[in-house]
Every structure is written in structure tokens, then in C-alpha cells.
Amino acid sequence: LGIPDALEVFGELSGKLDDAYNNKDAEAVGALFTEDAVLVTPDGKVFGRQAIEKWYADTFQRSPITDFLSRRDRLQLNAIDNAVWSVGDWWGTLQSQTGPVFAWGYWSTIYVREGDAWKMSDAKLFANRSALFANDAESAMIACSLL
Questions:
Q1: The whole model's pTM is what?
Q2: Cα–Cα distance between 36 and 104 in angstroms, integer?
Q3: Which of 29, 48, 76, 115 is found 20 to 30 A from 99 (Cα to Cα)?
Q4: At what angle do helices 137-146 and 49-62 cross, to 10 degrees?
């Protein structure tokens, strides 16, 4: 990659995303994306940093996260020209009207330089629907709609 401390740099970015999720801070999530970023969700594509921030604000309001963690210990990085792509695992607990819902899945991200910082230009989060430990349809829908 040409970045001596790449695992640390991108692990720190992953940690910032985890912190923003756990603090339900849509503005902090948005700050990690480029101006022209794309977020792919089960509901469709979200284009641009401002729209991504709004999507997360709406999502955090609708489906509060009580605990979220991506697997930084299994971070995989690959270089493509001037970009870096990474894949990993995540898990979290969401609050539904009937109680906590555990969910897990996978993510992929493409990072590019924006000024002096690495930012996400493309992000995808996928929930493993078979891993939802929900005891009702409403809880399962909340977990899947978050991602």
C-alpha cells in the first residue's frame, strides 16, 4: 500500500466509525465520507456526504444502536491505484420496541485521500439475516433496515 502504518491508520478510521455509531452521531459518521461518497443500503443508494449524514440521523432515530463493533483485528486492506479497499465483519445490538436485537454481518469500503485525510468514498454494510436473534418480525426488520 505504500503506507507504513496502514493497519493502524485504517483501524483508527474503523474505530471512529464504531464510536460514531455507538454515540448515534450522524454528523461524525458523515465526516468520515467524501463529499461525493455513495452508501449502499438495503433500501437503496445514498449519494453525497450530506445525504449520508441525514440517512444516518434518520436511521439512528428509528433504530437506536446500543452497541456496535467492527472487527478491526481482522482488517483486510488492498490497494487499487490511489485508493484502498477493505472488508470485514461487524456486529451490534439494536433497540426495538420489544427489546434488544442482536445482528451481525459484513462490510466493505473504498477509501480515498481527501486533502490530508483518508475518507470513505463507497461503503456497503450487509446484515446476515439468518443471524438475527429476533423473536418477532418487527425486531428483525429494524435490524435489517439499519444496514
A1: 0.76
A2: 27
A3: 29
A4: 160
